[in-house]
Amino acid sequence: MGDPTEPLLGRAALVTGAARGQGRAHAVRLAELGADLIIADVCAPISPTVTYPAPTADDLAETARLVEATGRKVLSRVVDIRDLAAQQQLVADGVALFGRLDVLVANAGILSWGRLWELSEEHWDRVVEVNLSGTWRTVRAAVPAMIEAGNGGSIIIVSSSAGLKATPGNGHYAAAKHGLVALTNTLALEAGEYGIRVNSIHPYSVDTPMIQPDAMLELFGKHPSFLHSFPPVPLKLASDGQSGFMPAEDVAEVVGWLAGPGSGPLTGLQIPVDGGALKY
Ligand SMILES: NC(=O)c1ccc[n+]([C@@H]2O[C@H](COP(=O)([O-])OP(=O)(O)OC[C@H]3O[C@@H](n4cnc5c(N)ncnc54)[C@H](O)[C@@H]3O)[C@@H](O)[C@H]2O)c1
């Protein structure tokens, strides 16, 4: 029986969008649980329609440093998840280094704002291209290597509360994140025979640069009825009672549990990580 404090010892995990925010927290948590890490991020602006700042290669290097500080190994690379060939090369290099691939956290994503009939094609295309099609390309690159390694595994698809309910002001984002539910559940059926589990998580209001209170307040100022779709989190979190936003590390705890043996029989599930907000 393995060390219960390091249930992922000897395993390898790939995390996309790992330069900062939730992706960094997931990488560090999986390393704490014993896994060696393959981390990727585009580390550059995707589109002028995305109005919060992008991370840099230094941010990704800092994630790599934090992983190494746990004592685990890391393969770190600037990769755009819209690029299938680059992700296939990254996976091949990771498997050459670590001998296997057990865990995938498909986390990279972008957000922009606008009502559906006012969005530009640039708004729509970039969000769908990254959040839905890019995530499929990550899956396309990783799953054959996981099957080839023959050890089963766990895939965590990072959707959103907007993947389970309507969110006025970002319908393109919600459409892409709802699409990830279909991807997750189809993949759970298809990969099950290889011992690979697939679940989606649906975070809400996590404290990262993606959350722009000013943009949201401007939207709610123009359309006060939209406010009802973005309720306060009912649960007072032990980790942060101050900001009202959930720390990324809380989401990473759930990801670590989904990656490991403790969640062994679970697949094809949608798991809200929302402090109860979806119940409003
Ligand atoms: N923050 C929230 O409240 C919240 C809520 C629900 C879901 N999410 C989802 O969680 C995930 C992580 O977001 P976050 O909150 O940490 O925001 P973030 O902006 O800090 O992190 C997203 C990361 O993905 C990277 N990325 C974007 N496009 C990429 C691409 N094409 N290729 C590779 N990397 C790319 C970014 O560079 C960034 O480092 C996203 O999928 C997001 O949609 C966030």
From TrEMBL:
It comes from the Bacteria. The keyword Phosphoprotein does not apply. Keywords: NAD, Oxidoreductase. The keyword Oxidoreductase applies. InterPro entries: NAD(P)-bd_dom_sf, Sc_DH/Rdtase_CS, SDR_fam, SDR_subfam_1. It holds the Pfam family adh_short. PANTHER family: DEHYDROGENASES, SHORT CHAIN (PTHR24321), ESTRADIOL 17-BETA-DEHYDROGENASE 8-RELATED (PTHR24321:SF8). Belongs to the short-chain dehydrogenases/reductases (SDR) family. This is Mycofactocin-coupled SDR family oxidoreductase. The lineage of its organism: Bacteria, Bacillati, Actinomycetota, Actinomycetes, Mycobacteriales.
